[in-house]
Queue: 2 jobs
Job 1
Amino acid sequence: MAVIGIFDSGSGGLSVYREIVKVLPRESYVYFADNAFCPYGEKLASFISERAHAITDFLLSKGADVIVLACNTATAAAIADLRRDYPGVPFVGMEPAVKPAALGTRSGVIGVLATAGTLKGSKYLSTRGLYEDNVKIEEHVGEGFVELVEKGILEGPEAEKTVRASLEPLLRRNADTIVLGCTHYPFLRGTIEKIAGDGVRVIDPAPAVARQTVKVLQESGKQTGQGVFSIELCSSGSPESLNRIFALL
Ligand code: DGL
């Protein structure tokens, strides 16, 4: 049985956890929400990297065989440092799914919703560089989205007003594909799809991250599929938001 460590700035990474547990239902999970420091979006990369190291130490102390950065912002800020500083530990990271969006768009315009930290990250910028000769890539920070999810406001007038303010600029520029580049945003997917309308495809990379987690565990020689499911939810701040989102799953 594998121990799968997952972390995010808050509850958003549970959108990744729910995909991983579909493909690895008989493992032991430790989920860490760094909600004492949430949101990460505008924080310095060096600060996020420090947090990621402390959380990695914690997850390793819990026996983690793999660590999933269920956070685009932390991946952008810290995964290279983590791989350098923990050479024996397998890490799985994530970044906005520009490739499938670029390959699937019909209007030739894709919209990326993510945090400021993710949009500045060198990995994202180089991926964008690979596709921007062929498609137009429009970006917007999902302003206030993380706060909505942490408060458990996933639909209704307040959620719609907040989502509309960041999504409409992308739709006005003719984006027919919206990439969810932050793991909190899939919890607002219903509201995003309602505002975007039928002709717009919304892409969440979490299923691909789940497949990558399986692959990384296989490569590290870890047996999976034989154990009993368990999960431990941990947080650096109040557990309220985490428990609320977990209850939804
Ligand atoms: N859920 C995170 C991400 O994927 C971080 C959001 C935040 O804390 O700003 O980027």
Note: The CA atoms of residues 98 and 127 lie 7 Å apart.
Job 2
Amino acid sequence: MKVLVIGSGAREHALCRSLSLDPDVSALHCAPGNAGTAEVAQSHAVDVLDGPAVAELAASLGVGLVVVGPEAPLVAGVADAVRARGIPAFGPSAEAARIEGSKAFAKEIMAAAGVPTARSYVCHTPAEIDAALDAFGPPYVVKDDGLAAGKGVVVTEDAEVARAHALSCQRVVIEEYLDGPEVSLFAVTDGETVVPLQPAQDFKRAYDGDEGPNTGGMGAYSPLPWADPKLVDEVLATVLQPTVDELRRRGTPFTGLLYAGLAITSRGVRVIEFNARFGDPETQVVLARLKTPLAGFLLAAATGRLDGEPALRWREGAAVTVVIAAHDYPATPRTGDPVTGLAEVAEQDAPDAYVLHAGTKRDEATGEIVSAGGRVLSVTATGSDLTKARARAYRAVARIGLEGSHHRTDIAARVAEG
Ligand code: AMP
Ligand code: GLY
């Protein structure tokens, strides 16, 4: 099977890496890709938001499956355009991707499906904003309604900061604060059958100790030894299946990856958000543990055949990933800095630790790999337990050079200590 992956982050590098290890994959393409995907997949320049252009590329390459990584192309209808060309696409329609594209729409689906989530108000005027902030009290949770790459959410004790963020949004959702640890649970679905993957935890704040601004995610680990072993079954029954059923009932079935961002609160599991695609950086650790070949599984979802698929197989042990971010990420990341140490990791740490590229490219003139985005690398490692995986990940991180970069030093630290 020939496969085309759309996107250019560490998630896409992780997808390409897993697909490249699948014996059923005869050719692998990535558009636009990055310096890391280029090692395992052929890169193609394309405007990822242009559905007809992506469909044309897929047709000209003769691929049997297109995997759309990021949310923006999904919300723009790229999976629809590919399917309209008669090519299987892993990823929801623009209609179904609204579950991520609009927080208000996600709340509406959850209400209709009886899925537990934070109580919330959608506000349109300053008076409504003040009323909602007063109703919930601190800590305030204020969310831009539209896509914001994980950066549209402000959680603060400060009413003025909350109010200012709310006023800066076109449409804003203000909601109840959820306490308790967060879990990311992914499920692959063909619109009917729902197959949950292994849960992971992401670290959203920029700095150690969960300080600093929200980011797209600074690191992740899986599995979650502290989680109730029944968690996945419970979330499948109370969150994932009802949501997939509700979207199908509305005539907008969701095929692809449904990502539930959950809070395990003192009053039970609550949905913080849905995403319509693989999470980044959680994908890096979940796919590191998946033994089942990826291409056939994603194709089964894309073609409505998940029901007959054998159960997923998982590796024993654990995986940890640490994101190396550019100078001043997430505010105004600097690009164009050379990345060093990649060959050392490949020589000394592989296959237990490896570097997945996010914002990188090869400098045409010098041939060097340079930074080209906010999150630059996602250093991923596996081990028989979280302590070993974590040690390997940080050993590899220490070999990488990127001027002005920062990374968290506490990814999976507390859980590894037990
Ligand atoms: P979101 O983009 O909705 O995932 O929000 C980004 C991050 O903000 C989440 O991962 C949480 O850490 C935090 N957050 C969002 N909603 C809530 C909430 N209702 N209560 C507490 N924290 C929240
Ligand atoms: N890691 C959070 C996300 O992918 O949205």
Note: Residues 118, 141, 143, 150, 153, 155, 175-178, 182, 204, 214, 261, 272-273 surround adenosine monophosphate (ligand 1) (CB under 6 Å).
